[in-house]
């Protein structure tokens, strides 16, 4: 089977990641528990008339995909595959609010049409006039990983040669408030001093759109090889070590072969114990990285983690702002990314240096 390579990246996030090399202009927010995306100049990518009718998640997805395609120097795609947890939730809220405000009468369908989860993939395809395979995965905390696995299988079997894959989620006021009430997101009186010091329920929320051009051939722009992807719906904290060891063994690797591990620590006292279980034991001698203090957490936040891993393998450096420990390697060859969402949807992703 063919190998799968990341040949282009585009990232719109809560940091200025769309026109910098690797986290040079980082702002760690300490006053907000809901982080918002740093917006690019949309008119450089989308006609202003069309942009006004689009939700921010759609616009961010279009821009991130355009950046990834430009970097990989591709203009045509064999497939567009996206993953999202809540889809275009902002337009969903607008439509539901109009139902209430108008007593279910005289409703305009625009917000309803644009609220579907596959809106981003559809808008990208319309802009490119791409009539190829177009699929959106809505699989909770492994929505992005599901899209990535689909693309990986198609490229390995040579069904496709160039695929655009992305993870997109946006925040919206009503949904955010519901999450705060349910203690999924930290309440307003709990400030984000440091997610490593948090001892309360709930995470720091975020939003973003991260896209990748995947191909089954290596180019001058190649960042990394996607060697393996695995996910499990439910695991206990005491099962994580054995699960990781089995995953690595399937790829003919051991813990000592992993040069850096990227963990989805988000400040939730109930679920960070999954990461602590391996941080203090299995990977205590491995370079450890965290990133959700920069991106916030959302269903497809792991796509930001893959972006971080890809940058590390290509640039061979780890910015101090994302270091979890002081372990340094002279060369980073194998990077493991582990993420879970609310104690479920555990994902393991192995990236290799090219």
UniProtKB/TrEMBL annotation:
Residues 52-220 form the Beta-ketoacyl synthase-like N-terminal domain. Gene3D superfamilies: 3.40.47.10. Keywords: Transferase. One of its GO terms (biological process) is fatty acid biosynthetic process. Pfam families: ketoacyl-synt (PF00109). GO terms for molecular function: 3-oxoacyl-[acyl-carrier-protein] synthase activity. It comes from the Bacteria. One of its GO terms (cellular component) is cytosol. InterPro entries: Beta-ketoacyl_synthase (IPR000794), Ketoacyl_synth_N (IPR014030), Thiolase-like (IPR016039). This is 3-oxoacyl-ACP synthase.
